[in-house]
């Protein structure tokens, strides 16, 4: 039997998604595959909560990181200023990616597990013109959740021209997210976390206004991460017509269509509420053991838990010997002091699997 995989992505997926990921290949422009791709793109509109038909979902073979490159390549020009609100390792890596496209990036950084105060963001936004701001909805290194509605409404008030970019890799599917209501311009995620699929797809949504900028941005370079290439393809598939730029992953797109179907048939709101319940219960149980979370209660993520333990290496190997795989810390400075446990997808939703009970008992016996 394989191990119980409870790292913060890739996660364990349902048997229907597993089956969908191992179908015989179909021709990528065949009517059968076009219907599958169309279904996935249409469902993403609901998962991302967009109400504007001019916004465009994008699904490309790659990982979450490709979303950062799409932003750097298409939504700014070399020399533009960008502002990163950093709550950890992944926020910082996004900033590093943007610098490779020539952006002049300012980073406002929080202490581990804390968030940057709104008034600091406000004065920074007033200090110069920013082409875009990056917000990592959940930084997976610290399990810290941003208060997106407050930050996005601040950006709209203080600097309405600035594109609002959200890294939703560890939030989409397990945290409340409202693309249109929160005036987001680009959200990026990946298939292997709360979208509940195997790894291998970069999944994003671009607003109509950001799309119009990207399509007329003369300074875009490179070939694969160029939206001028991909947007006609996405529009064609969504309209029910196969069109070629680069071969899509038949199996992964099929798996995504099935997993999105599962998310929507459970109910998006119900799923997010269930994730929160599972997460709150697990975190409370850990606190009752006398353990301290990395993230403060007011900004704790619901798809994973980061918790300080005395000997992380020992706890991780003890769990592995019991057939449970969790992750270690990755934030420089504290990485040797904590462990991370993922609870997304079926592990958070299906109590009958007892994944979270099992990992809790194993941690209790190992600390
Ligand atoms: C918040 C966040 N952003 C970006 C990434 C990068 O995604 P990937 O590893 O799929 O390239 C990750 C990976 O875990 C992440 O957690």
TrEMBL record:
This is alanine--glyoxylate transaminase. The modification N6-(pyridoxal phosphate)lysine is found at residue 193. Gene3D superfamilies: Aspartate Aminotransferase, domain 1, Type I PLP-dependent aspartate aminotransferase-like (Major domain). The keyword Transcription regulation does not apply. It is an enzyme of class 2 (transferase). Belongs to the class-V pyridoxal-phosphate-dependent aminotransferase family. Substrate binds at residue 340. GO terms for biological process: glycine biosynthetic process, by transamination of glyoxylate. One of its GO terms (cellular component) is peroxisome. It comes from the Eukaryota. The keyword Transferase applies. Its cofactor is pyridoxal 5'-phosphate.
């Amino acid at each position: 039997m394989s191990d119980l995989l409870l790292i913060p992505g890739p996660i364990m997926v349902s048997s229907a998604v597993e089956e969908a990921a191992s179908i015989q290949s179909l021709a990528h422009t065949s009517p059968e595959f076009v219907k599958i791709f169309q279904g996935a793109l249409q469902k993403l509109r609901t998962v991302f909560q967009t109400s504007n038909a001019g916004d465009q979902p994008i699904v490309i073979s790659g990982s979450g990181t490709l979303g950062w490159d799409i932003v750097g390549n298409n939504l700014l020009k070399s020399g533009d200023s960008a502002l990163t609100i950093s709550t950890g390792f992944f926020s910082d890596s996004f900033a590093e990616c943007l610098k490779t496209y020539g952006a002049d990036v300012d980073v406002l950084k929080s202490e581990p597990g804390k968030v940057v105060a709104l008034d600091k963001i406000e004065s920074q936004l007033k200090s110069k013109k920013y082409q875009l701001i990056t917000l990592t909805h959940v930084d997976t290194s610290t399990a810290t959740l941003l208060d997106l509605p407050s930050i996005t409404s601040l950006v709209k008030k203080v600097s309405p021209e600035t594109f609002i970019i959200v890294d939703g890799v560890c939030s989409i599917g397990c945290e409340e997210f409202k693309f249109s209501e929160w005036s987001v311009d680009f959200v990026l995620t990946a298939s292997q976390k709360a979208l509940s699929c195997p790894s291998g797809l970069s999944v994003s949504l671009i607003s109509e206004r950001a799309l119009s900028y990207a399509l007329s941005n003369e300074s875009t370079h490179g070939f694969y991460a160029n939206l001028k290439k991909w947007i006609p393809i996405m529009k064609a598939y969504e309209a029910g017509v196969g069109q070629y730029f680069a071969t899509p992953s038949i199996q992964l797109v099929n798996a995504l269509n099935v997993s999105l179907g599962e998310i929507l048939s459970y109910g998006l709101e119900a799923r997010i509420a269930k994730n929160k319940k599972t997460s709150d219960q697990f975190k409370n149980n850990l606190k009752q053991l006398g353990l301290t979370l990395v993230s403060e209660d007011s900004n704790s993520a619901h798809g994973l838990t980061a918790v300080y333990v005395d000997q992380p290496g020992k706890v991780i190997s003890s769990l592995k010997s019991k057939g449970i795989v969790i992750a270690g810390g990755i934030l420089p400075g504290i990485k040797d002091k904590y462990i991370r446990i993922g609870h997304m997808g079926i592990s958070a939703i299906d109590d009958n699997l007892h994944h979270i009970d099992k990992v809790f008992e194993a941690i209790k016996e190992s600390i």
